[in-house]
Amino acid sequence: MDSISFDNFTCPLPIPNGQQVTIGHGSGGTLTKNLINSVFYEHFHNPILDQGNDFAELSSESKRIITATDGHVVDPIFFPGGDIGKLAVAGTVNDISMSGAIPRYLTASFIIEEGFPMKDLVQIAHSMQACAQEAKVQIVAGDTKVVEKGKADKIFISTAGVGFFEKDLQIDGSRAENGDAVILSGTMGDHGIAVLAARNELGFTTTVLSDTAPMNNMIQSGINASPHIHVMRDPTRGGVATTLNEIAIQSQVNIILDETALPVNKQVQAACDILGFDPLYVANEGKVLFITPEKEAQLLLDALHAHPYGKKATVIGRVEKTDNRPMVLMRTRIGGTRIVDMLSGAMLPRIC
Amino acid sequence: MDSISFDNFTCPLPIPNGQQVTIGHGSGGTLTKNLINSVFYEHFHNPILDQGNDFAELSSESKRIITATDGHVVDPIFFPGGDIGKLAVAGTVNDISMSGAIPRYLTASFIIEEGFPMKDLVQIAHSMQACAQEAKVQIVAGDTKVVEKGKADKIFISTAGVGFFEKDLQIDGSRAENGDAVILSGTMGDHGIAVLAARNELGFTTTVLSDTAPMNNMIQSGINASPHIHVMRDPTRGGVATTLNEIAIQSQVNIILDETALPVNKQVQAACDILGFDPLYVANEGKVLFITPEKEAQLLLDALHAHPYGKKATVIGRVEKTDNRPMVLMRTRIGGTRIVDMLSGAMLPRIC
Questions:
Q1: Model ipTM value
Q2: Which residue of B143, B215, B245 to mutate against A (max A Cβ within 10 Å)?
Q3: Which of A20, A21, A25, A27 to mutate against chain B (most B CBs within 10 Å)?
Q4: Contact criterion met (CB < 8 Å) for A110 and B71
Q5: Cβ neighbours, 10 Å, residue A75
Q6: Could you give the maximum distance between any two Cα atoms of chain B, in Å?
Q7: Pairing relation of β-strands A328-331 and A337-339?
Q8: pLDDT digits over A181-197, tens only?
Q9: CATH ID of A53-164, from 3.30.1330.10, 3.40.50.1820, 3.10.20.30, 3.10.350.10
Q10: Which of A43, B51, B273, B320 keeps 20 to 30 A from A301, CA to CA?
Q11: CA atoms of B102 and B97, how far apart (whole Å)
């Protein structure tokens, strides 16, 4: 099974089905089966996938089920700290996890440009499986389409997933309450800046890594420590500012941020300063916003700090009731208050 | 809510968010919210979607759950008898239905090329909702990405879904048995030829319509009539020949087709004759292959004939045991026997 070396991604041995993905690999016939067997089954194989049906049968683990989907078009497909495969698995794992459910199964739909290097596809499949293993999810069904050269940009991956509840939790964007603490699990903007750097759009070098990662294990630690979490959401496209605005609207509350508390990696801040970006709007792919009762905030922080992905978790603000239009406000470093709006227009296209 | 006329798809009233999809519509910020609200929520709205979370909470209706995914890159996106939206809903509805489960929930991931006409997106959303209504499924979560002009071909849609069982069925590709009847629910190749015609690749005119449709209602009638169906599968890419080869391999049996029994629309046959295609390999998007015990075959046929999508259902062959490599064989019109192989290479790219 291990005829191809994945450790250094150099794939010194013969690549399955030739060096490139061809239109025939999307025909649904023999070539498609070969591609699926040699790349996808080889990496993802598990008893459900191996049955070879167009559907996957799962066993319900709770009455309540969570599903979610995410499409991935990141450019470039390989970037410091991750690639489109890791992103595609982590993205849907994270969306499901934000409900408090435990993600268990994923499906993956691949849209591949003709001529795409087979070794890159192998590397992506390897990343997907590594991320799935870390998140303890199985990839149980998939679909592969190939379009003519120039009709897609390398590869797009859409994942969807299913998760179940171990506990009777009620966590969603509409439950933020007056007095709740707003906790961010780490620094802002690492993913966005890492992808920009990989595009050579910075004009200077940086060693920032994307934070792309599955958040479900850290979240389960958090839920165990703080069983009454009201809201969890991952601040991806649009960043922390946009995500908090969504929550403020869903919950009909104000959210008051403390500018001095916002965690930003120094290199990310430097890149943002030069580019004129505000890290509050830059995408994250391995961070969670928690909104939890004040009295559980320290317990949650302690649990997050004990997890590798939550070492820099910190309280960044509070929830306040409002009788007017819900807003996100910031107490600034110099003692003023300003409105933090939702991102409008395009900031960083194809960041995920 | 009905400020835009969907009946004739002319959309005489102002289009939401301008005339075209822009990069900003994929930013995750205000423009994305507006697009989702005015196009997708407007059409798909239901209590689960309307909660506005990145995940959707479902209620399990059976211990056994079925999931499936399908990516759609059909070219052109509008064709006689359907469009990419109808195809995206029917495709996943059908994959789930082939297990005997009842599809209930879908997610949809949209990858849209910058500049895509908003009115086409509205039309596609309308088709998706119409097909979802017919299939009695809800679209409960989605994701929207926009890529730069030239980096995708108009629009790609990946759907995934969840279904549940009302009955304790065991239907999958490995259960075909010696003596079983092979029933096809209607004519072969309509979808493939309709899409080719829409591409103006035929060199002559035809009025063939794609058969794109959700098969779940017909299938449930079939299951009620023939409760011991062994296999169901929809012969999409690669056609009936490829799908039967997959089943023969999964079940380790031979499948013997009767050439005189194969149902083909006259116009489809004419088009295939001119193009040098065999309808056995041309894609279908609204057909089902049933493999069922011989003694239930007539009951199943009667049930299919009573359904609008199954009027031309017919027995096309039998399952035979084999001790050798499993094969699909055809008893020809002139009394011979030939091997019917799986499709190899590319026949019709981007047919679905």
A1: 0.93
A2: B143
A3: A27
A4: yes
A5: 18
A6: 67
A7: antiparallel
A8: 999 999 999 999 999 99
A9: 3.30.1330.10
A10: B51
A11: 6
